[in-house]
Design goal:
By secondary structure, this protein is mainly α. The chain has two domains: 201 residues, MFS general substrate transporter like domains (Growth Hormone, Chain: A, Up-down Bundle), CATH 1.20.1250.20; 213 residues, MFS general substrate transporter like domains (Growth Hormone, Chain: A, Up-down Bundle), CATH 1.20.1250. Helix content is 78%, strand content 0%. It comes from Arabidopsis lyrata subsp. lyrata. This is Integral membrane transporter family protein.
Length: 491
């Protein structure tokens, strides 16, 4: 283990490894502060379950447009750099909202202001996630490609550790600290992340578009633009040489004109880069081999209403489960996620993706049936405590969700064509996130339609029954997944 870490340190440097681990740890540790947000919405603002779920859905929307951050950072350098300036910007965006929410009572006492600040915070976190992924990809490609899997393992391990620590400490903090104090405590990590950005050196990038994203017409436009710029520069230089005898004023005018032309040329190159990247991404995504599987994963999310926030209200109000226990349940969920990853990699890679996804949805319906048992109180009659049901359901649910997510990761990695892997993979993840957001909106709508609110859970059983039924709708569309594709080979 120590020898392995020394190899990674030698390959990538201590500063880079520290930044990667810190950012991923912070992403996992977000459970520490978002648990407090859930209680702020429920207890302080007294929002209904559907209203709280709506706030969460809007706040997490920035995770659904991740490719936009990737394209902008790829095509528009700041100060000649494509990564560290955007990482600084994203860290500031993820830091400032928590400071406002911790120090200003008005901002956290208004559902509108709270939703705006949470959305800005997620914008910063999502942008940082895209930028650090790009930095990892570049480091692996330029330095040590053989360490690609090791670097990903380190990042995922850091996020898992952050998730476990955040869930454990979040429950304890809610039982002993004020919510505004929790908001301020969390700012320590983004602040440390902001300071750590100065430790990583980035080689200034040129402003040329990515050649693999340009078609022949765009290459001609790019060449013509470069030729025009060259001629304009020569003409400007000639005018300056002829005008040197006319005095200082003429020289200043020539210099100003050259700067304007260079600025215009740079803006044109940025526009061409953005245009090329966008059209290249669109052409790749429209290919049936990419579009059909991604359409299935999107359908799988939007057809199943997400009632997680409603269940949170039920667990805290009806079952009287405290914050410390719910933090423990989230830790168990993280362990279940790791277990699901192990099971898939160890035993299910040879299974066709269609079959593994089918079993995953059957498993998801079983976890919802367990929630129905909990809501109906049948578990009490059999001597099974509510806490046991919640812990078991959390572990099983996260494990099965990971069994469903692993095929998504496999297909995403396999379908990405060379040259635009990072941006296209970010698009795939955004589709997954957007599907989750739409599913949350569907859940909020279902809860509102059934009249489920704080203190009124009579129709909770019906809502879960509808969710079980909807779980099998995506099964009807499994024909969109390549028939013979498995975890180790393509169809």
């Amino acid at each position: 283990m120590i020898h392995w870490l020394k190899q990674l340190r030698s390959a990538f440097g201590v500063a880079f490894l520290w930044l990667v681990c810190l950012i991923y740890f912070t992403q996992g540790f977000r459970s520490f502060v978002w648990t407090a947000v859930s209680y702020q919405l429920k207890d302080r603002l007294q929002l209904s379950p559907s209203a709280s779920q709506f706030v969460f859905s809007v706040a997490f929307f920035p995770w659904s447009i991740k490719p936009l951050y990737g394209i902008v950072s790829d095509c528009i350098p700041i100060g000649g750099k494509k990564r560290t300036p955007y990482l600084v910007l994203s860290t500031v965006l993820s830091l400032v909202p928590w400071l406002f929410l911790g120090l200003d009572s008005t901002s956290r006492s208004s559902s509108l202001y709270l939703m705006i600040f949470l959305t800005v915070q997620n914008l910063g976190s999502a942008m940082a996630d895209v930028v650090i992924d790009a930095m990892i990809a570049e480091a692996v490609r330029l330095e040590k490609a053989s360490f690609a899997g090791d670097l990903q393992s380190v990042s995922w391990f850091a996020m898992a550790v952050g998730g476990v620590c955040g869930s454990l400490l979040g429950g304890y903090a809610l039982s002993n600290l004020k919510i505004e104090t929790i908001f301020l405590l969390f700012t320590v990590l983004p602040t440390l992340q902001l300071l750590s950005c100065a430790l990583v050196e980035e080689i200034p990038a040129n402003n040329e578009p990515l050649p693999e994203l340009l078609d022949s017409n765009e290459f001609e436009e790019k060449s013509k633009l470069s030729s025009d710029n060259y001629r304009d520069t020569n003409k400007s230089s000639t005018r300056r040489r002829k005008g040197q005898k006319k005095g200082k004023k003429g020289a200043s005018n020539g210099k100003s004109e050259k700067q304007k032309k260079q600025s215009k040329s740079l803006a044109s190159q940025w526009f061409q880069s953005l245009k090329a990247a966008t059209f290249g991404l669109g052409r790749a995504f429209k290919q049936p081999i990419i579009l059909r599987p991604m359409a299935w994963f999107f359908i799988a999310h939007i057809t199943v209403p997400n009632l997680s926030t409603v269940m949170f209200y039920y667990q805290t109000e009806v079952l009287q489960l405290d914050a410390a226990f719910l933090g423990t349940a989230r830790v168990v969920g993280w362990l279940g996620l790791m277990f699901g990853t192990f099971i898939y990699n160890r035993y299910l890679q040879d299974m066709t993706l269609r079959k593994s996804l089918l079993f995953a949805h059957i498993g998801l319906s079983i976890t919802i049936l367990l929630d129905m048992v909990l809501v109906s109180r049948e578990n009490v009659g059999y001597g099974v405590s509510d806490k046991t049901m919640v812990l078991f359901g959390s572990a099983l649910g996260d494990a099965i969700n990971q069994l469903k997510f692993m095929p998504f990761l496999i297909l995403s990695g396999r379908l990405c064509p060379p040259g635009i892997e990072g941006t296209l993979f970010a698009l795939f993840m955004s589709i997954n996130n957007l599907g989750n957001t739409v599913g949350s909106f569907m859940g909020a709508g279902l809860a509102s339609l059934l009249g489920i609110s704080s203190g009124s859970f009579e129709n909770m059983f019906m809502g879960l029954a509808i969710q079980v039924f909807c779980t099998y709708i995506p099964v009807l569309f499994l024909f969109l997944i390549p028939k013979e594709a498995t975890g180790v080979s393509a169809s």
